[in-house]
Design a protein that fits this description.
The protein is mostly helical. It has five helices and no strands. The radius of gyration is 24 Å and the shape is elongated. It starts with a helix and ends in a 6-residue tail after the last helix. The mean pLDDT is about 90.
Length: about 160
């Protein structure tokens, strides 16, 4: 009877970890949708009254925030996957210590830093391209204003 109860508890524990993995994956997917909606909404509402520099800064800040959040969710999802593997290994050996512990932090060291996660092949194209475009636009707009100020001297250089 004890082994049947342990097996049931083991399956419930795995279900909890799988639910955490699903939730992190769902959050990551939602963040991607919010990013596209955010960029599209900002560009749709841009009617020429705002400066291009301000528009680029708004997009740059939003994309950076969403990129960070998505990297957090992906890193946490990967940590839960590592936890899942370890729980299966430990429970198969009869070790039931820390049963039902859902803290992913001890496993985050195994999955890499948040920056490594942010530069993953699933994230950098979605966030990197708008980030670079907005950043280059900011640099160009600031450079244009600086060169305009420098070149508008009385000597007409």
């Amino acid at each position: 009877m004890l082994q049947a109860e342990q097996l049931t508890a083991f399956h419930k524990e795995l279900d909890l970890i799988q639910d955490c993995i699903k939730r992190m994956a769902s959050n990551s997917f939602l963040i991607k949708g919010w990013t596209i909606t955010y960029i599209g909404g900002i560009l749709a509402l841009f009617n020429g009254k705002l400066s291009v520099l301000l528009l680029a800064v708004i997009i740059l800040l939003g994309v950076t925030a969403f990129w960070y959040l998505d990297a957090f969710f992906l890193q946490t999802e990967r940590a839960y996957r590592e936890m899942y593997k370890e729980v299966v290994l430990l429970r198969s050996k009869g070790n039931f210590d820390n049963q039902y512990s859902l803290d992913p932090n001890p496993y985050k060291k195994r999955v890499g830093s948040r920056i490594d996660t942010a530069l993953a092949k699933t994230l950098w194209p979605l966030y990197g391209i708008p980030f670079v475009i907005a950043f280059v636009t900011c640099v160009f707009q600031i450079g244009t204003k600086i060169s305009f100020v420098v070149c508008c001297c009385p000597c007409n250089c």
